[in-house]
Amino acid sequence: MIERDTEFEEKLLAAVIRSEQHRARNVQIEIGPSGVGTCREYIRATMAGDPRAPEPAHWKAAAWMGTVGGDALEQIFAAELGAQVQVPLSAHLPETGLEVAGTGDIVFVKDNVLGDLKSVDGFESLIQYGPKFEHLIQVSVYTLACVQRGLLAEGASAKLIYFDRSGGTNEFVVLPMDWDAILIFIGVLEDRFRDVLRAQAALEDGDLALRHDLRDKSPSWCMSAKVLCPFRYACWGGSEWMPEGEITDEDQLLSVQKVIDGREMERVGAKLRSEGRKELEGIVGTTPDGTIVSWTGIKDDGTGGRLDVVLPQKARDV
Description:
Elements: H1 6-21, H2 24-27, H3 40-48, H4 61-81, E1 84-92, E2 99-108, E3 113-120, H5 124-129, H6 133-149, E4 157-164, E5 172-177, H7 179-204, H8 209-213, H9 219-223, H10 232-236, H11 250-279, E6 285-286, E7 292-296, E8 306-311, E9 314-317
Parallel strand pairs: 3-4
Antiparallel strand pairs: 1-2, 2-3, 4-5, 6-7, 7-8, 8-9
């Protein structure tokens, strides 16, 4: 086991957390294009200024890496392709009359295209299931705003530009949207806002039912460490999601911890196997202790295949 300087680790992490807590994007309260495609109750609570749960002091490393990588890519596209980046935009929704303001990532004025950068941890899910609904709404709002401002002409298109923040894939996945699709999603957004406005009016009259109908996410999603919605307790605290009783038995608490630790070990183990497999791509041979490394099913172009790592006197697939 390697020796770690945990005191210095904590010092570095605390500095990053302080910086993140003061970043403009993290302290804004008003709803922007990135939020209007999420849970409708989140939209209503944000617009109404409802109390928020305290923000936990932790570093969302994956999101941070995506932001840093996106900022660097924007500067590359500005320098190499003449794109405008970090463009302040405000879209006027024609039916509800609401304004949604934010900052567009990339505007390719000459191409009549709005680009929005998104970071993902691998492309498998994106290619299999397509983009998130939130992303389609967000890029539609930005494109409409560009047209209304005169940066782009009516009939403009949008590009959702995905990059792999894990570094495992050295390419982009670009998903296009034409003007007709953009207008369809703007119409969907108008419907969502109408739901929100009706629920808020009912809430002010003492009727909570419509507000509860706006909850578009499951409690486990809202409460997850990856999300931690600021309105999670207002939505789900004391609801049917909260199990009755309290676990205090030491043996049971130990069992719960075993599940948590085991799940984390599985995650770390899968990560180590993935890293080792990439590093051993195309490598075959025998180590000094007799472990055999071989590949089967290699494609004609030399990629893919199955890695077999056979330990001395014991076979185990990686």
